[in-house]
């Protein structure tokens, strides 16, 4: 019994280790986001030519932000201020982890059509063809195939067991399926919290950038005595709006992808539960 528990623990750790590791990926994505902000959006080519602008980024030029005149959309985004690179990080993170979840969940569904697999296995169970059902699991693979295979393997072993009564066998079968499902769930749900968190945090960080921009705008409004600094005022307002737009866009994408992948996970677990019920019914009928 202790050996089985140890084996299960090792399998859980292995599945949790699968996929992208946020502790490694996020610092890399931060550097990429910072580079995009400085050298792509802050490229001198995105701004009106000025002899004071030199180098790979206007960030290193000896010129005030109110004297920069963006001539492209990238330049406009750069004028959103220092919070922009954080929002770029959030957007890249949403894209990267959404792609990761897309491939992981696609692999979890298996190689063949999942609905056809469920129907085929249920038909074989109704005919008590366990070996053929196991072959279907080997062809399907994926998380659903793994759980069903574990359940069918236990089914086959219990059907030849003479030491347990029927009720005990049903309990053992149900436990085996639950344990197999538990082993697969960490892989399915990994990194989903990142998308969920960014759906909220991106809006809050954007709000911070908006507030900073408005502070600059009102400061420009009152710093010139009787004559407001129109350039600084417009920069402050545009900075506020740019941060708002980026934050709302990032948050929207994060929420959409989170809900999409959550529905995919729910669909997979439903298929597992559907076949698990069929396995239990078949065992009760034929044993």
From TrEMBL:
Residues 155-273 form the MotA/TolQ/ExbB proton channel domain. The keyword Transcription does not apply. It is a multi-pass membrane protein. GO terms for cellular component: plasma membrane. Keywords: Cell membrane, Membrane, Protein transport, Transmembrane, Transmembrane helix, Transport. The chain crosses the membrane at residues 20-40, 76-97, 194-220, 240-261. GO terms for biological process: protein import. Its main location: membrane. It is found in: Cell membrane; Membrane. Belongs to the exbB/tolQ family. This is MotA/TolQ/ExbB proton channel family protein. It comes from Chryseobacterium elymi.
